[in-house]
Amino acid sequence: MRKEELLQLIRCHARESTITKEELIDAYEQGLKSPAAESQTLIQSRLSAILYFIGGLIVVLGIAILIGQNWNSLNAPSKILSTLGSGIAAFVVGVLFSQNKKFDLIGQAFFFISVLVMPTGLSITFDIAGFDIGSNTLQFLTSIILLATFLGAYSIFKKTVLLIACFIFGTWAFFSLTNLIVGNNPIVRDWKFFDYRVLMTGLTYIFLGYYLSENDTENKETLANWLYGLGIIGFLGAALKLGGWPPHQNPFWELVFPGLVFGTIFLSIYLKNKSFLLFGSLYLMAYIGKISAEYFAHSLGWPLALVIAGLALMATGYFSFYLNKKYISA
Fold first, then answer.
1. What are phi and psi of 33, to 5 degrees?
2. Angle at 32 between CA 31 and CA 35, to 5 degrees
3. d(C-alpha 75, C-alpha 77), whole Å
4. Maximum distance among all alpha carbons in the chain?
5. Which residues in 212-249 are b (16+ Cβ under 10 Å) and which e?
6. What is the CB neighbour count within 10 angstroms for residue 33?
7. C-alpha distances out from residue 123 to 140, 141, 236, Å
8. Which DSSP category does 60 fall into?
9. For residues 40 and 168, what is the distance between their CA atoms, to the nearest angstrom?
10. Angle at which helices 76-97 and 104-128 cross, to 10°
11. Half-sphere exposure of 318 toward its Cβ, with a 13 Å CA cutoff?
């Protein structure tokens, strides 16, 4: 594109108010920076973020030790103020710092402190009020309050730490709600209720990761990869566990599991994501070892079963390497 065409395009965008003067100046200044300088800036930014969050973790640890040492000497209002009050104060400070882009990372660090402190603060508040905090009703109520709080904050500030908090408290709300619905029904408990919930949670994480990767705003790609990894571990781990071990195997899940694993591996090609390939291959190896121990150790003998399993694992390793080299890394 020639210089005059570029300037004319900028004028058109300026007239339509789709670009601001500050954005143009920022783009011009970024163009003056060398790739090495940009890389150095990125490293410094990531290092600052790590230090901020480590500092936040140390602050939470200090608060916990201070309150623990003086817990018996504190009255009820002091206990609530030092726990829930600290979490709310950190949340408010995070909101204030998030108003200014220069203090964005510091604001996220204070949000991180509030994510760690507020659940404990709410539980202590309910406990002092005389409620049974171990009940499913209180667990669900606590998780919903936290989810609503951080979901509302995320809708305004769009910070990654707030989105992670939403995932955590949303998962907590799902498990506490299903516990509340089912109660102590022994029939449902015998149906491996927890495993099925982990299966559904893992699948949900995979869909959320896909949504973030397709609608990547504010560099959510890293978070999408984490969701992919956690989702695959939960989904395939629950499916493998549902297959059972002798003498209580579940034939359905043992037959379905290879299809799930190969579907995960081939999905890595479509999504160009190594998490699917890595964890799919690891679970395939685990499945081969499990089947070998269950069905071939006694009929063929343990040494021969180990030989067959070893060859199958080598084939799986080569297959994974081939797929990564040809379809993902390329």
1. -75, 140
2. 75
3. 6
4. 80
5. bbeeeeeebeebbbbbbbbbbbbbbbbbbbbbbeeeee
6. 12
7. 11, 10, 33
8. H
9. 33
10. 160
11. 6
CA dist 218 and 159 (Å) reads 8
CA distance 179 to 43: 44
Helix (H, G, I), strand (E, B) or coil at 297: coil
CB distance 261 to 240 below 8 Å: no
pLDDT by residue, tens only, the chain of 330 residues: 566 766 677 777 677 777 777 677 777 666 655 454 455 554 555 666 677 678 778 888 887 887 888 888 888 898 898 889 989 999 999 999 888 877 888 888 899 999 999 999 999 999 999 899 888 899 999 999 999 999 999 999 888 899 999 999 999 999 999 988 887 776 666 678 889 999 999 999 999 998 888 875 555 778 888 999 999 999 999 999 998 877 778 888 888 998 998 888 888 888 878 888 888 888 888 887 787 777 665 655 556 656 666 666 667 666 666 666 666 665
DSSP characters for 217-241? -SS-HHHHHHHHHHHHHHHHHHHHH
CB atoms within 10 A of CB 189: 12
C-alpha 292/C-alpha 309 separation (Å) is 6
Q: Return the DSSP state at 327.
A: I
Which SS3 state, helix, strand or coil, does residue 80 take?
A: helix
Cα 60–Cα 61–Cα 62 angle in degrees, nearest 5: 90
pTM given for the model: 0.77
188-195: long-range contacts (C-beta < 8 A, 24 or more apart)? 192/241, 192/242, 195/238, 195/241, 195/242
pLDDT at 300: 55
Nearest in space to 289 (alpha carbons), one of 268, 271, 312, 262: 312
**Which token pair is 262?**
């190969």
Say if CB 121 and CB 86 are below 8 A apart.
yes
